Structures are given as C-alpha cells and as structure tokens.
C-alpha cells in the first residue's frame, strides 16, 4: 500500500476485515452499529508530505488539505448528507462518522495525493451498518393428533431485524445439547417423552441474543393428557350452573304462583264479606 500503515488503535471502532473489491484492490470490510459511530482507518508513513486526501462515497464526501507548520488542516465537506457528522483524526486524517444511518452503508475510498510524487494511493472500504438485535419472539403452533402425538411448529423472529440475521435453536436431549439452524423448528412430543425446553438465538455481525426457554409442557399434554381435565371440569361447572339456574327459576315460578293464589283467595273472601253486608243492610217489606 505504499504510504499506508495498519489500523491505529485510536481509530479501530468498527470491526475490520480484508476483502476483495473485485477491481484488484483490497477492500476493508467494516462493520458498525446503527446510530453509533465508526472510523475508517488511514495512516501515513512518517516523512511523507501530503498534498491532500480526497474521501468519497458513491460521490464526493470531503477533501482534506493538511496544514503547514502547525496550522490546522483545511477541510471541505462536499456532501451535505455528512455535514456535521464527520471529522478527520490527525495525524492520518482517518474518517470518523457519527450517528450512522442505513444510508451510510456502502463503498468508501480515500485517495492520498503526495507532494513528492505524481502517483497517488487509494484505499477502499465497504461499510456495513447493522442494528443491535432485540430479544427474539417465539410463535408456537401445535396440534394433538389421533396417535396422541403433539406436533409443534416454533417460529423465531426479531422485530426490525434488518439484514444478515441468522437463527438457531438450542434444546436439551438425552445425551447432549442439540442445535438446529433456521428460524422455524418443527418437532413432536408424545406422552412419556422427556419434557424439552427450546431456546432461539438470533445473531447478526454485531450482536447475538437468546430468547427465554419455551417448555413443551404448556402446549402439549403431559402423560395422561391432564390438559383434558380442565375441559371436563369446565363442562361440569357449566352443567351445575345451568341446573342451579333451572332450580332458581322453578322456585321463583312456584313462589309467584303461591302468591297469586293467596291474593285471589283474599279477594274472594273480601267479596263474600261485602255480599253479606249488603244482604244485612236491605230493609224488609213494609206492612199494609
């Protein structure tokens, strides 16, 4: 690379790996975190006099002209999208970007022009921006077949996962931990089988996180299918409740009927008393 040295410790805030850009020049693969910062490392051999450094990404980004005799460098940011978000770390003028967004992903290059030579040097970077993953969520679908087997399908997902997310399942068998790759795990369970717990792990290049263990018990019945007992209990409770309502309704109708009979009996007695009073009050025939 001529005037370049390895990444300085003050600038290695992203994960860096060598790659191939496809044009014969090595490309550094840099991984960074969304809304955080990253540094694209650039170092110059001591004694080299720089004319300027031109940073670009998709199109022009900034031009740095080193100052003379202790004067600060003249920096011109030519891309408005990076205005206020970039700085250049002396003495090598490595590119430091803050508040990363998805749009910052992509190819970057630094063109170093020397005062003492007509030959310029180039350095290439490929920046990948990822989000830190949140805890995986597990969706469970299950059915109990006629052979008393519980067939389960577990699906693992992460909200706003982004690109390059991989999923794996960890569960404990009789002899060792078992790992299955992929977001969907299909399994079955029968009465008498060992009760397993399943854990999903989601990973991307900058983070990995596991879910809480999901036991099979709450979804598949234990031996004897005790999960059927609550159903029978609910049916029995409903039957008793309906019977109680019927008894209350019957008693209510009986009380109403008795009250109606008593009322009618009182009314008849009252009419008879009135009739007797009327007969007693009538005058007899007058003598001639």
From TrEMBL:
Keywords: Glycoprotein, Membrane, Signal, Transmembrane, Transmembrane helix. It is found in: Membrane. Its main location: membrane. It comes from the Eukaryota. Residues 136-210 form the Ig-like domain. SUPFAM superfamilies: Immunoglobulin (SSF48726). Gene3D superfamilies: Immunoglobulins (2.60.40.10). The keyword Membrane applies. The chain crosses the membrane at residues 235-256. One of its GO terms (cellular component) is membrane. This is SLAM family member 9 isoform 1. It comes from Daubentonia madagascariensis (Aye-aye).
């Amino acid at each position: 690379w001529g005037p370049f040295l390895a990444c300085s410790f003050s600038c290695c805030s992203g994960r860096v790996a060598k790659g191939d850009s496809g044009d014969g020049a090595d490309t550094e693969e840099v991984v960074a975190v969304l809304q955080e910062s990253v540094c694209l490392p650039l170092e110059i051999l001591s004694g080299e006099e720089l004319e300027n450094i031109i940073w670009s990404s998709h199109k022009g980004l900034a031009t740095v002209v080193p100052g003379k005799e202790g004067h600060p460098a003249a920096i011109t940011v030519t891309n408005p999208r990076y205005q206020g978000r970039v700085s250049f770390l002396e003495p090598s003028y490595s590119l430091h970007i803050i508040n990363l967004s998805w749009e910052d992903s992509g190819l970057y290059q630094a063109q170093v022009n020397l005062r003492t030579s007509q030959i310029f040097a180039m350095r290439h970077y490929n920046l990948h921006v990822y989000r830190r993953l949140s805890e995986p969520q597990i969706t469970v679908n299950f059915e109990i077949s006629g052979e008393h087997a519980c067939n389960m399908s577990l699906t693992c997902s992460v909200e706003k996962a982004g690109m390059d997310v991989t999923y794996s399942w960890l569960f404990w068998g009789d002899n060792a931990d078992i790992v299955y790759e992929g977001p969907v795990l299909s399994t079955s369970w029968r009465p008498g089988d060992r009760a397993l717990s399943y854990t999903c792990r989601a990973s991307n290049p900058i983070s990995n996180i596991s879910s809480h263990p999901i036991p099979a018990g709450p979804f598949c019945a234990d031996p004897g299918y005790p999960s059927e007992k609550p159903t029978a209990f609910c049916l029995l409770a409903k039957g008793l409740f309906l019977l109680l309502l019927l008894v209350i309704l019957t008693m209510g109708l009986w009380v109403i009927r008795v009250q109606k009979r008593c009322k009618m009996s009182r009314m008849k007695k009252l009419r008879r008393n009135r009739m007797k009073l009327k007969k007693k009050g009538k005058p007899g025939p007058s003598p001639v």
